[in-house]
């Protein structure tokens, strides 16, 4: 079992290179036993305005940093995290829902995210432009290059409290921007540790801030201030829509979740499909934007699949998240576990069949599988963000694709088949940002473009693609006196 400090720690927030306290604080609890583990400052609107003012200076500093300086700082931060990886993993597991095994994987992904950011910093290229393609411009030549946009606001969720922060901070620094991070109130400690890593790596003051607290205490300046040129938000659809309505003329990158589908056809490798979909449904207690929520199984293998799926689910070990034997820990709070419980109860009362699970103990909600969920239930249409999966029997691929698309979300989908024509047909017809063939929807590497369509958001993360979002092209044209 990993050692966790039992004494409550009073943390400071990181504003423009300085660690500061405030008289008012918020409490951070371990959701497993509701134990108070830390306090962090509760920032107010004055803190917000101060941080933005300092970030204006930080944006100029960041824009003047050379490429090799940014590369060095990003790699040093990655090195520092690697040297303290067990502390980072323990912090993720302690403040959030992940088991210690899941937390260690997130730390390694964070390191990879920062190293990719360092690599992509050297590849922010432009192109020459042939101006003489237009008659009358024979005496012109030029190019475009990409420049940083200024100050980025990153609003991050609780479910990946380190790597999702790194996915915003890494490319922002690589692009030469200043960035203000507002982590989820439930899980601020990992983001503060990441700020410490960048401080140790030599990032100039004012380039990065991590401001903690509740939005209600900060006012609306954090999202409405005209100096904030881009908002990168990962969270729920309703919150994302509210931010966009209030923020005004800015760039947005919005990853707003999904209720991801997986299709299993009769020619699929059933053992692989079952293993992947079970893991995809219950990783991090189902609190995962890519998590498998709906599985459409071709009717000829449906009963066989269900039997195998239930057998594997019932082997899932739920318990102490610091035990190396545990597969799944608690949800982020008892309130969230009760919400999921109510959604499952609604589906059962509406005619769904509960195959296993459906039990709650405090903030723990046990892996739950249902079938025949009516199409008007929340479980069928909304993102459950919990350890619940629904199974459906379908006659053919076209029906599976239709039902997969018949929701307001479209982040990623999975399909299991050995038929290349079926796979390519699904790739073309599924209305999502990514299709994973012979794996579940819950697959991602940190270098790929990541994002969705419809209610799943706008823009793309993944370092190279986030860099495009965090920079703008500037055209340079020379009129020259050279005669041909």
TrEMBL record:
It comes from the Bacteria. Signal peptide: none annotated. Its EC number is 1.2.1.97. The keyword Oxidoreductase applies. It catalyses: (2S)-3-sulfolactaldehyde + NAD(+) + H2O = (2S)-3-sulfolactate + NADH + 2 H(+). InterPro entries: Ald_DH/histidinol_DH, Ald_DH_C, Ald_DH_N, Aldehyde_DH_dom, ALDH-related_metabolic_enz. GO terms for molecular function: lactaldehyde dehydrogenase (NAD+) activity. SUPFAM superfamilies: ALDH-like. Pfam families: Aldedh. Residues 19-476 form the Aldehyde dehydrogenase domain. Keywords: Oxidoreductase. Belongs to the aldehyde dehydrogenase family. Part of the sulfo-TAL (or sulfo-SFT) pathway, a D-sulfoquinovose degradation pathway that produces sulfolactate (SL). Catalyzes the oxidation of 3-sulfolactaldehyde (SLA) to sulfolactate (SL). This is 3-sulfolactaldehyde dehydrogenase. It comes from Bacillus salipaludis.
């Amino acid at each position: 079992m990993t050692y966790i400090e039992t004494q409550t720690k009073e943390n400071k927030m990181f504003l423009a290179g300085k660690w500061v306290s405030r008289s008012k604080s918020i409490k951070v609890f371990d959701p497993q036993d509701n134990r108070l583990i830390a306090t962090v400052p509760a920032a107010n609107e004055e803190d917000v305005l101060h941080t933005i003012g300092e970030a204006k200076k930080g944006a100029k500093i960041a824009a003047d940093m050379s490429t090799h300086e940014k590369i060095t700082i990003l790699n040093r931060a990655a090195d520092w995290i690697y040297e303290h990886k067990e502390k980072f993993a323990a912090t993720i597991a302690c403040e959030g829902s992940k088991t210690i095994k899941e937390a260690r994987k997130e730390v390694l992904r964070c390191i990879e995210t920062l190293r990719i950011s360092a690599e992509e910093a050297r590849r922010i290229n432009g192109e020459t432009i042939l101006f003489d393609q237009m008659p009358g411009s024979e005496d012109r030549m030029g190019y475009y290059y990409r420049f940083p946009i200024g100050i980025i606001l990153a609003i991050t969720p609780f479910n990946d409290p380190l790597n999702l922060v790194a996915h915003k901070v890494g490319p922002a620094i690589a692009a030469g921007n200043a960035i203000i991070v507002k982590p989820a109130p439930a899980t601020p400690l990992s983001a503060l540790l990441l700020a410490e890593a960048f401080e140790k790596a030599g990032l100039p003051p004012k380039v990065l801030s991590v401001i903690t607290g509740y939005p209600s205490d900060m006012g609306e300046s954090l999202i409405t201030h005209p100096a904030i040129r881009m908002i990168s938000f990962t969270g729920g659809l309703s919150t994302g829509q509210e931010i966009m309505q209030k923020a005004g003329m800015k760039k947005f990158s919005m990853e707003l979740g999904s209720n991801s589908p997986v299709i299993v056809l009769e020619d699929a490798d059933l053992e692989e499909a079952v293993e992947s979909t079970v893991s995809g449904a219950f990783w991090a207690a189902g609190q995962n934007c890519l998590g498998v929520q709906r599985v459409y199984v071709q009717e000829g293998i449906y009963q066989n699949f269900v039997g195998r799926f239930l057998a594997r689910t019932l082997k899932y070990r739920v318990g102490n998240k610091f035990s190396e034997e545990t597969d799944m820990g608690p949800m982020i709070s008892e309130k969230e576990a009760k919400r999921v419980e109510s959604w499952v109860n609604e589906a059962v009362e509406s005619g769904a069949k509960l195959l296993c699970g459906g039990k709650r103990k405090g903030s723990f909600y046990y892996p739950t599988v249902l079938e025949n969920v009516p199409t008007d239930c929340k479980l069928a249409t909304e993102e459950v963000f919990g350890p619940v999966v629904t199974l459906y029997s379908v006659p053919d691929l076209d029906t599976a694709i239709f039902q997969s698309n018949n929701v307001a979300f479209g982040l990623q989908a999975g399909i299991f088949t050995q038929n290349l024509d079926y796979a390519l047909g699904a790739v073309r017809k599924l209305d999502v940002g990514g299709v994973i063939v012979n794996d579940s929807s819950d697959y991602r590497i940190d270098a790929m473009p990541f994002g969705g369509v419809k209610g799943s958001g706008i823009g793309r993360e993944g370092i190279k693609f986030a860099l495009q979002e965090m920079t703008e092209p500037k055209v340079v044209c020379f009129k020259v006196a050279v005669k041909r």
